[in-house]
Amino acid sequence: MRITEKAIKQKICPLEFAVNAISGKWKIPIVWRINEGEKRPSEMLRGIAKVDRRVLNQQLGEMVNDGILTKQSFHELPPRVEYSLTPLGESLVEVLWKLNAWGELLLESSNKS
């Protein structure tokens, strides 16, 4: 690997890193649902319109790997899995509230135009 390639790989913008962690069509609705008290994938499937079970499980797994969620498996029949927010995930919810307020401002601005 050349020195320039190594230097480029080591330059990571924190904002880009954050956006990559929550990019995905369903990640923000998933976090929102868990914040509202839904913990099981079956609850999220009912609450988030048009999400596919495979995609839901994939994005849940990515957020567990990123430290946003924790996964707890219960060894019973039928098998049960629950997800919850980590402290990092709870801080994301605070950011989402601010982003929601900014979105409301954007809507008001576009309605005035």
Automatic annotation (TrEMBL):
Signal peptide: none annotated. It comes from the Bacteria. Keywords: DNA-binding, Transcription, Transcription regulation. InterPro entries: HTH_HxlR (IPR002577), WH-like_DNA-bd_sf (IPR036388), WH_DNA-bd_sf (IPR036390). PROSITE patterns: HTH_HXLR. This is HxlR family transcriptional regulator. The keyword Nucleotide-binding does not apply. It comes from Sphingobacterium siyangense. GO terms for molecular function: DNA binding. The keyword Transport does not apply.
